[in-house]
Amino acid sequence: MRYKTHIVSSLTAGAGLSIMLNYPFHIGYVIGICFGSLLPDIDEPRSFIGRRSFGLSKYVKQRYGHRGITHSLFAWMLVSFVFLIYPSFLTIGISLGYLFHLIGDLFSIRSIPILAPFKPVRPTLPFTYKTGSFTEDILLYIFTFLLFYFVFVYGKLYPYLIQSTVELVSSIIHILMDYLKTISN
Ligand SMILES: [Zn+2]
To answer: CA end-to-end span of the chain, whole Å?
Structure first.
C-alpha cells in the first residue's frame, strides 16, 4: 500500500472502532493513527516516512530489509509497549495505526513476515491486491468515502474532533505565550 492508502484505511478503521466501542474520536487519537500507519515503512528510504527519517530508514533497510521485522506482530508489540507505559489518545492511536498498516500490507500480494523474527512465513490471503495498482486506487476511493461517512454521517464523530482540535491548538498557543513571556523577562 502507498502511504495515502495506509493513512486513509487506518483512519477509517479507527473511526469504525470509535463508533463500535464508543471511544472518543480525539485529535490526538487521529494524529496517532496517521503517524502509526506510516511508521512500519521506516524500513524503506523511498517511503513517505523514510524520506523524512534523517537516514534512520537506510540503516533499518540495510539491517532488516524492506517489509522485514518492522512488518511483524513482534514490532507491533514493541510499539504498543509505549502505550502501556504512557496511556493516551496519541499512544493508543499509534499502536492501532501500526496494526492497521500491518493488516493492509498482509492483504497485498507480497504479504508480510507476520511472525518474524520467529518464523519466516508470509501468509497469502484469499483476497489480495498489488501495491500501486488500479485495485489499490479503488480501495483508496472506498476507504475515503467510508471515512467521511463514519465521521460526518453515521457516527457523527466530527463535533468532538473539532472541539478537541480547538483545545489542542489553544493549549499550544498558551504554552508558546508562556514561553515568550519567560524569554522576554
Ligand atoms: Zn508497509
So the answer is: 51
